[in-house]
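Please decode residue identities from the backbone states below.
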């Protein structure tokens, strides 16, 4: 499936959302499928953002499928996302960058300014930079788990945490994010 971002309306229609607007809301998206080596290109971009790629636990493969063999810390985060199935809103504690190699998943990003959700269908060889405190919603249902690639975490996989939606309102990471985007 190709990348697409849009706001759904009550009448069933939708409005496409630009990557620039997503960036204003804490999600940077870069398409890498036109390069010879998307993995190497992603590493260059991520290194330019200050990620220490020579640190062993700053780069890890991930796979959301049931039978996947993920590193222990990645499995723990995926488990936390699955646990949020009934209240799927959350934010990451620290910045995370994800390179999708193959994906049929969708997730939603809160548009805090418009008080709406933006649905994002990820595509292959997309690089997603998710800022800490940006509110996301993902349904980890059986039909929405075809998603694998590489995750980059500046402070290491062990530092990656999830803030459940119920705890977001007063959380310092969320408050810093809201101040950063001007709300």
């Amino acid at each position: 499936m190709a990348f697409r971002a849009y706001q759904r309306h009550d009448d069933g229609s939708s409005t496409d959302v630009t990557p620039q607007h997503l960036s204003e809301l804490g999600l940077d998206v870069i398409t890498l499928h036109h390069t010879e080596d998307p993995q190497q290109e992603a590493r260059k971009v991520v290194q330019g953002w200050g990620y220490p790629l020579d640190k062993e636990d700053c780069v890890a493969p991930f796979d959301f499928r049931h039978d996947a063999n993920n590193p222990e810390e990645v499995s723990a985060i995926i488990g936390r996302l699955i646990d949020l199935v009934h209240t799927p809103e959350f934010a990451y504690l620290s910045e995370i960058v994800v390179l999708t190699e193959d994906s049929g998943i969708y997730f939603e990003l809160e548009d805090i300014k418009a008080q709406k959700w933006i649905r994002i269908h990820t595509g292959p060889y997309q690089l997603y930079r998710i800022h800490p405190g940006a509110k996301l919603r993902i349904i980890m249902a059986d039909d929405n788990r075809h998603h694998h690639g590489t995750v980059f975490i500046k402070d290491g996989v062990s530092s990656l945490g999830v803030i459940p939606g119920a705890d977001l309102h007063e959380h310092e990471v969320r408050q810093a994010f809201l101040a950063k985007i001007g709300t």
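Observation: The CA atoms of residues 52 and 82 lie 29 Å apart.
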